[in-house]
Amino acid sequence: MALTANFNWLSQTDGDTLELTDINFFDAVPVAVDMTTVSNVDMKIRRDSEKGKLVDTLAIGTGIKWIDQTLGQLRIGDTDDLVQIDWGGAGTYYYDIQFTYSTGIIRTYLRGVIPVAKDTTYA
C-alpha cells in the first residue's frame, strides 16, 4: 500500500455537518490491510491550495474513528464526533490523511478536495 489515492468529496454546504464517510484500505489482491501498527491518523484541511491556510485538523477522537483497525476501516465525521464545516465560507478545501506507524514510518495514502458551496440559510 505505497500509493496515494485521490478522493474528491461531493460538494458540501458551508455551515453544515461534514458528510459521514467510511474509508476501507485494501491491498492489490484485494485484501483488507491490517492497520494495528498505525499509532496516529492525522487529517489536515486547508483553504484554496495544498499550502493554503490551515482551517481544521482531524485525528482519532477528534473527527476520525477506527471502525475496525485490523480491517483498515476508518470513519470521518462519526456521529459521536461530528465535524462542522465552519472553515471560512464557500470555496475549495484541500486535505490529506497521514498515517504514522509505531515504527516511525509516515505515509500519506489519501488526498483530495472538499468543495464547499454557500448556504443561504447559514448566518
Shape, principal axes of CA atoms:
globular
Stated plainly, the CATH topology is called: Immunoglobulin-like
How large, in whole angstroms, is the Cα Rg? Answer: 15 Å
The CATH superfamily title: Macroglobulin (MG2) domain
Q: Given the helix and strand composition, which structural class is it? A: mainly beta
What is the share of helical residues? Answer: under 10%
Distance between the termini: 43 Å
Whole-number count of domains = 1
Strand content: over 45%
Give the overall average pLDDT.
92
Separate helix tally: 0
Total strands: 9
The CATH architecture is Sandwich
Low-confidence stretches: none
Reading the helices and strands in chain order gives EEEEEEEEE
Top CATH class: Mainly Beta
Write the layout of secondary structure elements.
Layout: E1 5-6, E2 12-13, E3 21-24, E4 38-47, E5 54-60, E6 63-68, E7 73-76, E8 91-101, E9 106-117
Parallel strand pairs: 1-9, 2-9, 5-6
Antiparallel strand pairs: 3-7, 4-5, 4-8, 6-7, 8-9
